[in-house]
Write a structure and sequence with these properties.
By secondary structure, this protein is an alpha/beta fold. It has helices spanning about 40-50, 65-75, 90-100, 115-120, 140-145, 170-180, 190-195, 215-220, 230-240, 250-285, 310-315, 345-359; strands at about 30, 85, 105-110, 125-130, 150-155, 185-190, 210-215, 225-230, 290, 300-305, 320, 325, 335-340. It contains 12 helices and 13 strands. α4 links the parallel β3 and β4. The protein is globular, with a radius of gyration of 21 Å.
Length: about 350
Amino acid sequence: MVPDPMSWVRDDLRTATGYSVLEAPDGTIKLDAMENPFGLPDPVRQELAKAVSTISLNRYPDPRATDLRLEASRLIGVVPEKLFFGNGSDEILLNLFLATKGTIVTPEPTFSMYRIIAGTVQRSFKGFPLNPDYSFDPEILPSVLSREPPGILVLASPNNPTGVACPLKTVFRAAKIAREYGFVTLLDEAYYPFHGETALSEAGGEDVLVLRTFSKMGLAGLRLGFLVAPEPLVQLLDVLRLPYNMDSLTQRAAVLLMRDVYPLLEKQVEEICLLRDQLFSGMQSIPGVSPVPSRANFILFRVKGVPPPVLFRRLLEKGVLVRDVSGHHPLLEGTLRVTVGTGEENGSFLKALREGVGG
């Protein structure tokens, strides 16, 4: 008798669900994944190809990502010893949750990977609701944290999928309260480029671990994230991470792009912010559609008169892919999320949305 391979699987993972990604049909306008819609100019692509063509792929990559560490240090103004790199911010979360103890606590709705990764490494997880307008009140923390073993308070600003940012004074107030209950605060700044406020540049930021990614700014294909943390914690995470977790191609490409192309990416971010504001106004003009003011590169919106799954299908039939998040949390009932695209893509979305809401 052939043994059931699932008999070796942890009981808590037998019915686990991961992060779902829908593959769009060819020709679809893809506005579901918070990607930069512009891409890199041909001269930059050619320079990048030339740079990576000299890599010795028969050799392992630099285990310490030395050049990458130095270039990132220069770019963000943090000493190299406080930087920890990962294959996207998800790998960093995995290592951080493995290295620490206690409960992972976060206001919800938020990025689903916090809960998923906590479950994967068998960490206790506690979510508590944001305010109805998706703002966060740190004064609720004593009633939440006092019931949990000290661990990590995770905040995201701007938050996904709401797009709402948390004022830095609120972040630092939350960090102070968390510390009183033995918790460390992790601030996920994945959408920092579109918001412009960071705990790294303010007094009080030394009390907060800061998580960043280059994905939203325009380098999603590189899968590059980093954590700014005290040096002893970075040293511990270096012990836990898998060997050579940052491949040679990513390291070389990231150094080149940070050194020579970052100003271009910043200009693209500025344009995306302008397009976001135009898209928001366009959505406001459609009866039955209520967009949430956003500080990220996407907009959460509520619809009346048509269930989100139905509207999602109508939009997809018209060649536009968005994200139906209505079932992710009670506070998200009736909502979908759209990424800011190019002007032409946003126009196509608004036309499809107007028709889709109208039936």
